[in-house]
Amino acid sequence: MEHDYADMLGLSEYDFEKAFDSFDERSYEDTVYYSLPDYHTKLERGTVLFDGEVVRGFPKVPRTLVLAEGVPRYFSDTVYVEEKMNGFNVRVARVDDSLLAFTRSGIVCPFTTMYLRRRYGGEIEALIDSHPDCMVCGELVGADNPYTRHPYPEVDSLELRVFDVRRQESGEPLPVEERREVVDSHGLPQVRLLGVHEMEEAASEVRDTIGELDAENREGVLMKSADVGQQLKYTTSAANQDDLAFAFTLPFDYGQAFMFRRIIREAFQSHEDDTEEERRERAHRLGESILGSMTETIERVDRGETVGEEHSVKAKPEEVEVLLDHLRDQGLHLVIEEDRVEDGERYVEFVKKTQATQDKTGVYLDGKIVRE
Ligand code: ATP
Ligand code: MG
Fold it and tell me: In this model, does residue 243 exceed pLDDT 70?
């Protein structure tokens, strides 16, 4: 290896050589780079080695299932509560003198790169000038989103919400207060700070906050220590059930663990929060999320329609072009449902076709005999 990545990653040569086997080789424009797509014992998933530079993966955020017990157990001091927004994670780093946007698994997304450069390039460059060796981490949120899909009333189309400024190589974060100040002073939009609580009160305060977010169909919170050394997440029932409703529209494509984990979250939240009546109500909604979604899919296939993940994107024509190429390069089969140009922007609605659900549902409908 021509670069001393082991040293940059803080690993011994031996550990680095071993870890390197788990990296994928990729390329962006004319540069070959390496990214770590899966969880690993020594390195964060999504860590990238790009032309002699390291872009550290975003750390995995643990979760508590029970606020009252989990929060005091995990934190020892003041708890900062920020909104957890539902979009896709992006790290924007300056590599080889230009801004690149990396997805959670460490892929340079050409669309996100172009889009962010256009919308926020100046602000991000200025922030990195004032904090050399740092990268900006945030969530791209909004309805016109090629990877996830959750609308926010205050977000038009697709926007960035910054939630971290970290050292590009080590991943070390700026403390919450300093980071909020830095992001704000550079004119970048950031996630909301919903409260700062003493450890003893944090769990009950967060419960109230979660109730409010749930009523607005928002995802949840990230609790953080002042130095961001500890982060803990907790989500609303609305988010858990939205995920379930979505996953069960594609029951043979989504991992069963994904679904099971969300049912477990609902059970513990019900145990912690619900009256008898609320529990019955939650059970009813949960049934709708699961059964209602699956039957909808069966009906669609029965009518001869395509099932899959529906997304939309609205951006400059060249950005949309780059996105569709990138998704197809990754082996996705796209069905374009709508494609038009409006005020210099191209709007496309497309379905990422999910073959397993399409095929299995079809053969079951045709009466395939199942031996279980
Ligand atoms: P993991 O469990 O590895 O963290 P995941 O894909 O299951 O990943 P989520 O359940 O969405 O992720 O929770 C963590 C993610 O939440 C972060 O990776 C980040 O993209 C997103 N996020 C949204 N808002 C915030 C915030 N305020 N602070 C930190 N992360 C946030
Ligand atoms: Mg998320």
Answer: yes
Record: fold of 67-82+196-234: Dna Ligase; domain 1 (3.30.1490)
Please report which helix (H) or strand (E) contains residue 108, including its range. Answer: none
Domain boundaries, the chain: 1-55, 67-82+196-234, 238-293, 308-365
Q: Can you tell me which atom of ligand 1 is nearest the CA of 161?
A: 24
Q: Distance, CA 84 to ligand 1 centroid (Å)?
A: 7
Strand ranges in 193-238 using DSSP code E only, listed in sequence order: 193-197, 220-224, 231-235
3.90.550, 3.10.450, 3.40.720, 3.40.50: CATH of 1-55: 3.10.450
pTM value is 0.96
CB atoms closer than 10 angstroms to residue 315: 23
Identify each DSSP E strand in the chain by its residue range. Answer: 24-28, 31-35, 48-50, 53-55, 79-84, 88-95, 98-103, 134-141, 159-167, 193-197, 220-224, 231-235, 308-315, 334-342, 345-353
Give mean pLDDT, residues 100-127: 98
With 90 as the cut, is the pLDDT of residue 106 above it? yes
pLDDT tens-place string over residues 79-99: 999 999 999 999 999 998 999
- Ligand (nearest to CA of 60): 1
Q: What pLDDT does 1 receive?
A: 64
Encoded amino acid at 56, one letter: R
**pLDDT, position 2:** 66
